[in-house]
Amino acid sequence: MYNKKGQGLSTNAIILIILGVVVLVMLIYGFMTGWDFLKKELIPENNVNSIKQSCKAACISESNFDFCSKKMDLNNGTDTIKDITCEILVKDYTGFNYGIEACSSITCEKAPIVA
């Protein structure tokens, strides 16, 4: 009848081969450079709630150091604010609606400059 020398690949097989190659490349890249690229690029980390709880706990326990001096990195999912304290969040970031409340039981004073 017809002169068939071989059978062609189906569309499903071609798609599976392409997906397999993409997964293989991602695995090789991940093992060679580390997996932080997936965590940072695909899963943006939002730590606003944990910082809010940390500031609230510092206020309740009246921990001056934790509220006034402990530096944290706030990540809201799109931007990262580095080396920020609860005091700075209360004073300078009130319009961002992070929900971090002022602490009436703690007074933050600037440390004297030692020469």
Question: Can you tell me about this structure?
Answer:
With 115 residues, the protein is mainly α. The chain folds into two domains: 11-42, no CATH class; 45-115, no CATH class. It contains five helices and two strands; from the N terminus they run ααααββα. A two-stranded antiparallel ribbon has the order 1-2. The longest helix has 23 residues, at 11-33.
List its salient traits.
115 residues; rod-shaped; mainly alpha; two-stranded antiparallel ribbon
Strand content: 5-15%
Distance between the termini: 98 Å
Helical content band: 40-55%
Number of individual domains = 2
What is the count of DSSP helices, taking H or I runs of 4+ residues? 5
Average predicted local confidence, pLDDT: 83
Number of strands: 2
Tell me the series of helices and strands, N- to C-terminal: HHHHEEH
Calculate Rg over CA atoms: 26 Å
Largest sheet: 2 strands, antiparallel
Tell the overall outline.
rod-shaped
Low-confidence stretches: none
Strand order of the largest sheet: 1-2
Structural class by helix and strand composition: mainly alpha
Question: What is the fold's blueprint, element by element?
Answer:
Blueprint: H1 11-33, H2 36-42, H3 48-60, H4 64-69, E1 72-75, E2 80-84, H5 86-92
Antiparallel strand pairs: 1-2
